[in-house]
Specification:
single chain; alpha+beta; 280 residues; 10% strand; disordered N terminus
Length: 280
């Protein structure tokens, strides 16, 4: 599986290509449509073709026939993970104080496997609390087996042990909670909601191309934020603020789809869907 990281910079040629292909899911896009979309973001045809070649070489995209491209099959699990943001608070259940999920990353794994495992755990809201030990509140709606399947799809090594348990003493150790920086999460929810609301008011006054660019960039950032939110329970963060951001992002996503659908160019009538971006 490719090395995967989250980035705020959606306006890279690789991000544009991956997001355009993700919007097509199992269908294909022509090279011409991808080049047309890239031009909207200021990328030359040569830059887009070079990027397509590199993504092909790395096995991130595939070409069933000349001039047609789609995401490689192994990226489907990543796409499904991102799309879980639409479930909102249905992804969690009430937390029983003191119940935690633990993940032990066995030492001696190849560097690539260890990095992929840590990325998957962080994406699912785990944080390192001790050497080789990750933890999160046990409030996810998924059963342990379902969580293992989801985590494996985004890079978790089979050698990582997932267990539930309760730490000795304080059911919510303060030294652990700081790993999530709960106050920063709350501030982030409020700031993100403000930015979405301001953008939604501004979009109707913008030119078509500028509106497309803004809803693509901001919408993608918010979807990534929600996809990778640690989903902490109400004991630690403002869950109502998180839910308000989710609802606003749903509305903004619909607004963005309408803006893209109104375009004159056939290649730009489907809004790109945010991809867990590959490095490079």
């Amino acid at each position: 599986m490719p090395d995967l990281v989250m980035t705020r910079n959606r306006n890279k040629p690789s991000a544009v290509i991956l997001d355009m292909l993700r919007s097509a899911r199992s269908r294909h896009r022509t090279a011409r449509s991808l080049i047309t979309a890239g031009a909207l973001f200021g990328f030359s045809e040569n830059t887009l073709r070079v990027t397509l070649s590199r993504l092909m070489t790395r096995g991130i995209i595939e070409s069933p026939e000349r001039g047609l491209y789609r995401l490689a099959r192994q990226t489907d699990a990543l796409n499904d993970f991102v799309e879980r943001w639409r479930l909102g608070e249905a992804r969690v259940r009430p937390w029983r104080a003191g119940r935690w999920l633990f993940a032990h990353v066995i030492s001696g794994q190849p560097k690539g496997q260890a990095t992929a495992s840590e990325w998957a755990l962080i994406a699912l809201g785990f944080r390192g609390v001790r050497p080789a030990l990750f933890a999160r509140p046990d409030n996810l709606a998924l059963k342990t087996g379902e969580l293992r399947t989801l985590a494996s799809g985004i890079g978790l090594s089979p050698g990582v042990l997932l267990v539930t348990g309760q730490p000795e003493g304080d059911p919510a150790p303060q030294s652990w909670l700081q790993a999530w920086r709960p106050s920063e999460l709350d501030d982030g929810y409020a700031d993100a909601l403000r930015r979405l609301e301001e953008s939604a008011r501004r979009l109707p006054t913008m030119t078509s191309d500028r509106a497309r660019l803004e809803c693509f960039s901001l919408g993608g950032e918010m979807i990534h934020r929600l996809a990778k939110d640690p989903l902490l329970p109400m004991e630690f963060v403002n869950v109502q603020a998180r839910e308000a951001l989710w609802r606003a992002t749903l509305d903004y996503d619909l607004l963005g789809k309408d803006i893209w659908a109104s375009g004159k160019e056939e290649a730009l009538r489907r809004m790109p869907r945010p991809q867990l971006e590959t490095t490079g």
